[in-house]
Write a structure and sequence with these properties.
This protein has one domain: Decaprenyl diphosphate synthase-like (Undecaprenyl pyrophosphate synthetase, 3-Layer(aba) Sandwich). Helix 3 runs parallel beside helix 4. Strands 3-4-2-1-5-6 form a 6-stranded parallel β-sheet, sandwiched between helices. The chain contains 6 helices and 6 strands; from the N terminus they run βααβαβαβαββα. With 252 residues, the chain is of the alpha/beta class. Helices cover 37% and strands 13% of the residues. The structure holds farnesyl diphosphate (FPP). The site of farnesyl diphosphate has 20 residues, from helix 1, helix 2, strand 2 and helix 3.
Amino acid sequence: MAEQTDTAPDGSALGQGAHQGPRHVAIIMDGNGRWAQSRGRPRLFGHHAGAKRVREIVECCPSLGIKYLTIFAFSTENWKRTQVEVAGLMSLFRRYISKEMKALAAKNVRVRFIGDRVRLDAKLIQLMDQLETETAQNDGTHLTIALNYGGRDEVARATKRLAQDVAAGKLSPDDVDEETLPKYLDTHVLPDPDLVIRTSGEARISNFLLWQSAYAEYEFIDTLWPDFTAEELGRLCRQYGTRDRRFGAVKT
Ligand code: FPP
């Protein structure tokens, strides 16, 4: 029988949030390509429409009680797309950051990026740093953008740094446990996601937040990302509130 505990892995009281909305929502924004193709337009047209959708979703978070929003913008596997699409996406990220910087700062959004920056171009990295710095004092919605992110890559990079600390004598192998390892992950300052949503009808997690989503609730919905609305997010949040999260324990 599973052992009963009073707290969830994220430290929140077990059962307390049974009928509350999710505090941390993570979204796999899928379906931009199909949305564009169904309109006879190039895939990048869909990515531009998807980028516009991000603003509405970020803005509705406070009213839905979502404190943390994490979005999957570009995966470590997305480099396999055509050079035209990859270059178009990188240009879109640069433009999005430049264009949205002021509005995000003014709306009290704190932006962070997760993922490996090594393959990203210098201009994009500079804009990412600037956006993180400009919003560092904000305490409203915490928006995390996963860019060149892969869950396995993140765990491998974390393990490498952890091994370096062990080799340097800063950490004992006996101290490596479920509390220590996440401190080396890109997400170390964030709580685990409560709800992971994937749009566009695919029911897989594609290497997104593998460690962090161990106890998340999942929603796989048919809507293509450029059609996803604040209303639909609200519906999913309310649905989440009806779920019974036990974190492996037995309800008394
Ligand atoms: C998946 O759709 C989407 C992506 C790989 C890119 C996500 C990017 C955005 C939503 C736009 C910009 C985001 C920010 C933060 C500015 P897909 O191309 O795999 O669609 P498909 O499955 O229909 O082909």
